[in-house]
């Protein structure tokens, strides 16, 4: 399978390297700064699931240098989505399907509108990873899940092929029969988790120490469940309970990637995640007071768009 990784950061470099490790043809399409960093330090994974260095990574800076592709793994931050659109159109014209694994939901209808419904798969990831100062991936969670599925019936053979090639890779791969539900379930979880950790500037262990603070999470999840239901996604109280149990089971120091970005002074995806939820709610006449409040609390730390 010819795979292009667009967004060779913490997630893109991780999964791209894991496919390279099992012999797949992976091209990393990057911007100038990242290209320079990769030329200097390579693409390397520091992971308890297995250290790995891509021996001779295929790195390009121009989409025109790519002849054809079967799949694009899209792993940019929400605030960089607009900047990838021309590149994605070009790759779709060369035959590729796009697998976005951004957190959130709003990017799905945007990509479908821009690229056509047949071209956009559903995808998400559960992993905790970041780049160190050499641009190497530091993967710190025991899990490294990549979940994908069809959003259009014509995509079945591509997801089956993706499933086949991922089977032997060090990836927790899953071909989902209900990817829309999984996307919303993750969206519910991540808005609550990133909201509470980033707004309070605390990891989950500290939050759990204060009942009044942890109780907010429950309201948050309920609110996002209502939003999902408004879009005919059948999330239930059981999904909320499972999300709460997941948060109760995380190690004390665990925190969201958005909170990690706040600690590093990086741009936050709060407009894509919480802002996106508020826009989706407005469209169907819902109010999300907890999400709105959290959005307001995080906004001052959002930083400049880059
Ligand atoms: N990190 C994590 O643990 C998790 C993250 N996620 C989600 O995954 C998504 C990606 O996050 P993450 O991997 O952490 O982000 P990173 O910031 O580590 O990586 C994003 C990469 O995208 C690149 N990029 C942006 N625009 C372009 C472009 N036009 N062309 C080429 N490359 C581009 C950036 O490159 P440049 O250096 O040029 O800016 C950067 O390397 C987010 O939505 C996040 O919420 C989900 C689960 C866990
Ligand atoms: C919760 C987690 C770590 C799971 O992948 C995540 O998606 C994030 O923090 O962005």
Describe the overall structure.
The chain has 306 residues and is of the alpha/beta class. The protein has twelve helices and ten strands. The protein has helices at residues 10-21, 32-41, 85-93, 107-115, 156-166, 179-200, 204-208, 211-230, 237-249, 257-264, 270-283, 289-298, and strands at 2-6, 25-29, 43-47, 52-54, 58-60, 71-74, 97-100, 122-131, 137-149, 172-175. Helix 3 (85-93) links the parallel strand 6 and strand 7 (97-100). It starts with a strand and ends in an 8-residue tail after the last helix. The model has no long low-confidence stretch (mean pLDDT 97). The chain binds NADPH dihydro-nicotinamide-adenine-dinucleotide phosphate and ketopantoate. Ketopantoate is lined by residues 103, 125-128, 190, 193-194, 256-257. Belongs to the ketopantoate reductase family.
How is the secondary structure organized here?
Layout: E1 2-6, H1 10-21, E2 25-29, H2 32-41, E3 43-47, E4 52-54, E5 58-60, E6 71-74, H3 85-93, E7 97-100, H4 107-115, E8 122-131, E9 137-149, H5 156-166, E10 172-175, H6 179-200, H7 204-208, H8 211-230, H9 237-249, H10 257-264, H11 270-283, H12 289-298
Parallel strand pairs: 1-2, 1-6, 2-5, 3-9, 6-7, 9-10
Antiparallel strand pairs: 3-4, 8-9
Residues 6-12, 29-31, 33-34, 75-78, 80, 83-84, 101-103, 125, 127-131, 257, 269 line the site of NADPH dihydro-nicotinamide-adenine-dinucleotide phosphate.
Pathway: Cofactor biosynthesis; (R)-pantothenate biosynthesis; (R)-pantoate from 3-methyl-2-oxobutanoate: step 2/2
Catalytic activity: (R)-pantoate + NADP(+) = 2-dehydropantoate + NADPH + H(+)
Family: Belongs to the ketopantoate reductase family.
């Amino acid at each position: 399978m010819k795979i292009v990784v667009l967004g060779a950061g913490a997630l893109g470099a991780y999964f791209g390297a894991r496919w390279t490790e099992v012999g797949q043809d992976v091209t990393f399409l990057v911007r100038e700064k990242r290209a320079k960093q990769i030329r200097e330090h390579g693409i390397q994974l520091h992971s308890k699931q297995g250290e790995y260095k891509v021996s001779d990574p295929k790195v390009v800076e121009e989409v025109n240098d790519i002849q054809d592709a079967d799949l694009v793994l899209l792993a940019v931050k929400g605030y960089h989505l607009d900047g990838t659109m021309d590149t994605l159109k070009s790759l779709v014209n060369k035959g590729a399907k796009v697998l976005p694994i951004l957190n959130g939901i709003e990017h799905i209808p945007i990509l479908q509108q821009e690229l056509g419904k047949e071209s956009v798969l559903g995808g998400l990831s559960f992993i905790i990873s970041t780049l160190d100062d050499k641009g190497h991936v530091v993967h710190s969670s025991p899990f490294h899940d990549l979940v994908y599925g069809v959003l259009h019936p014509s995509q079945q053979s591509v997801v089956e092929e993706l499933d086949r090639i991922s089977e032997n890779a060090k990836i927790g791969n899953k071909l989902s029969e209900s990817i829309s539900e999984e996307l919303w379930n993750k969206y519910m979880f991540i808005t609550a988790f990133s909201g509470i950790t980033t707004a309070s500037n605390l990891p989950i262990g500290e939050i759990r120490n204060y009942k009044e603070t942890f109780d907010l999470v429950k309201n948050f999840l309920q609110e996002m469940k209502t939003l999902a239901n408004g879009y005919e996604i059948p999330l239930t109280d059981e999904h909320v309970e499972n999300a709460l149990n997941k948060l109760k089971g995380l190690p004390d120091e665990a925190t969201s990637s958005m909170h990690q970005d706040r600690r590093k002074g990086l741009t936050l995806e709060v407009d894509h995640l919480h802002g996106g939820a508020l826009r989706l709610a407005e469209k169907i006449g819902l109010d999300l007071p907890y999400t709105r409040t959290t959005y307001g609390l995080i906004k001052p730390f959002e930083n400049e768009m880059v």
